[in-house]
Amino acid sequence: MLAPMRNRLLLFLKGAAMGLAEVIPGVSGGTLAFITGIYEELLDTIKSILGPDLFKAFRQGGLSAVWEKANGPFLAVLLPGMAFGLVTGVFIVTRLLESHPQLLWAFFFGLILASVWYIGKRVGRWTVVEISGLVAAAALAYYITVAAPAQGIDSLWFILICGMIAISALILPGISGSFILLLMGMYTVIIPAVKTALTTFDSASLKILGVFAVGALIGLATFSRFLSWAFKHHRSLTMAILTGFMVGSLNKIWPWRNVIEYRIDSHGEEVPFLEKSVLPAAYDGEPMVLGVIVLVIIGFLIVWFLDQTPVDEEEPDVA
Fold first, then answer.
1. Transmembrane region positions (predicted)?
2. Which residues of the chain have pLDDT under 50?
């Protein structure tokens, strides 16, 4: 009895961690799913929900079969945890971002730094292929963190593509979907459209939101299948690539970053747009070095608390 309750509590906390991550610009919920050991199960669950298997299950066994096929017990605990994390993040994390950003970034830096070492150990083999994949993924993720945002366009076909790419980045460890929208120049198009659609039901905003949602569903269904296939057939290479994405993303959550350019948000307020990582001595503000070190250590240790499930033996890659 205690073991199932403990497992549900741990899954709830993992969901809460994912929800918190989604509030932080530059941190992906997929990263937290990856480092807490539920990433592959989450991919398989998404694949089941967004595929034809649910209809087959309903015809064969009704709603109970659908619940089982959709991994209902898993979602029934994970989704409330994510909701709790999102709500907590909106009221607490966003305030910390305004008052003590370097401490919050330090906490997530410690989380991801620990996961790089931990997940790297789970790569079944380290050959030239895996090392090359890690280096290439790290370079790509780093480039994304320093790339200058493009100028977006509001054509429906481009909005559809943005939905596909942003949601794919959302489940890819190390890359934030909202940051991808920013790089594509679509953050100021999509976010205001969502707000307007939910408050005034403006037809133009609803159209943008609908097309974006369709693109997100297509991207989620496609990318989850691809990643699930990659894990089953090229596990070592896939793990190495995802580890590389996390290595490259560390630049985005470096605790000391100076703003070099601002933008105007949907509220007409000036907010950071481009930032540059610097050493504590060059930081524009109180570096709080001791606090940063403590939070990095805490973040590092939490990885071990969240990952309570013993690591299974890795299956060999399928040629």
1. 74-96, 103-120, 126-144, 156-184, 204-224, 288-306
2. 1-2, 309-319
CB neighbour list of residue 16: distance below 8 Å, 6 or more residues apart: 81, 82, 84, 85, 88
CA-based nearest residue to 250, from 303, 302, 171, 173: 173
In angstroms, how far is CA 219 from the centroid of its own chain? 15
Give φ, ψ of 271 to 5 degrees: -130, 155
Q: Is the sign of the CA dihedral 242, 226, 143, 182 positive or negative?
A: negative
- The pTM of this model reads 0.71
User: How many residues would you count in the chain?
Assistant: 319
C-alpha distances in angstroms, 202 versus 37, 210, 212, 215, 268? 41, 12, 15, 20, 20
d(CA 269, CA 117): 39
Asked whether the CA dihedral 82, 85, 90, 93 is positive or negative, the reply is negative
- Per-residue model confidence as pLDDT tens digits over 101-145: 888 889 888 888 887 887 787 787 889 999 999 999 999 888 877
Contacts of 54 (CB under 8 A, 6+ apart): 48, 66, 69, 70
